[in-house]
Amino acid sequence: MNLRQLEMRLERLEGFERPTARLEQYQTPAPVAARLLHHAAMQGAIEGRRVCDLGCGTGILACGAALLGASAVTGIDIDPAAIAVARRNAELLGVTVEFLVTDVRDPDLDQAGLACDTVVMNPPFGAQKAHADRPFIDLALELASVIYGIFNEGSAPFVAAYTEGRATIEEVIRCAFPMRRTFAHHRKDRVDITVEVIRLSGI
């Protein structure tokens, strides 16, 4: 499946029904999700691999990984309503994904059961709560040796410092992230921000 075909399939998926600002529930745009997944697939990190999507929201990255031939895909999110949408999205695409309602910060999380080859994620940028992305990074490094994450522009130095001794940044890809009006405090129908897709390799 080429990049455009993947993007077109992902554009069909439902978004959040009632997004919550506290959880920074912005829908991952199909072009960004497709670019991350296609790039990861070209690097051998998706097809035939066990993939986990942390903070999966409505499941766009998890469903896309399944479309690209991952051997098993798990998506976890704290919001049951988002997981309900994610399950419908998987059904729409005819893919098999195990979706779990759980908190990445839960000390009783079954990390052994979630262990995988590749983590994909679009963690909170920390706009509502500082350092909200750190638990996602920490868990990702526990679960997999290869991680692809979407971060706010300029995050690479922080990610490098935060993961020092645990991982190295292999690649940073900048791309536009069209953010549509989602919450009451938004003033414009759409704002294009720049994000960084960062590939981390565990040490």
CATH class wording:
Alpha Beta
Distance between the termini: 31 Å
Instruction: Compute the CA-based radius of gyration.
Output: 15 Å
- How much helix is in the residues? 25-40%
Task: Report the structural category.
Answer: alpha/beta
Uncertain ranges = none
Find the CATH superfamily.
Vaccinia Virus protein VP39
Average predicted local confidence, pLDDT: 92
The main sheet comes to: 7 strands, mixed
Number of domains: 1
CATH-defined topology = Rossmann fold
Beta-strand portion reads: 25-35%
Strand order of the largest sheet: 3-2-1-4-5-7-6
Order of helices and strands: HHEHEHEHEHEHEE
| CATH architecture identity | 3-Layer(aba) Sandwich
**What shape does the CA trace take?**
globular
How many β-strands, per DSSP? 7
What is the number of helices?
A: 7
Structure description:
Residues 41-132 form the Methyltransferase small domain. The protein is an alpha/beta fold. The chain has a single domain (3-202), classed as 3-Layer(aba) Sandwich (Rossmann fold), CATH 3.40.50.150. It contains seven helices and seven strands; from the N terminus they run H-H-E-H-E-H-E-H-E-H-E-H-E-E. It has helices at residues 3-10, 30-42, 60-67, 80-93, 111-114, 134-143, 156-162; strands at 50-54, 72-77, 98-101, 118-121, 146-152, 167-180, 190-202. A seven-stranded mixed sheet has the order 3-2-1-4-5-7-6, with helices on both faces. Helix 6 links the parallel strand 4 (118-121) and strand 5 (146-152). The chain starts with a helix and ends with a strand.
Task: Give the helix/strand layout.
Layout: H1 3-10, H2 30-42, E1 50-54, H3 60-67, E2 72-77, H4 80-93, E3 98-101, H5 111-114, E4 118-121, H6 134-143, E5 146-152, H7 156-162, E6 167-180, E7 190-202
Parallel strand pairs: 1-2, 1-4, 2-3, 4-5
Antiparallel strand pairs: 5-7, 6-7
Keywords: Methyltransferase, Transferase
GO molecular function: methyltransferase activity
Pfam families: MTS
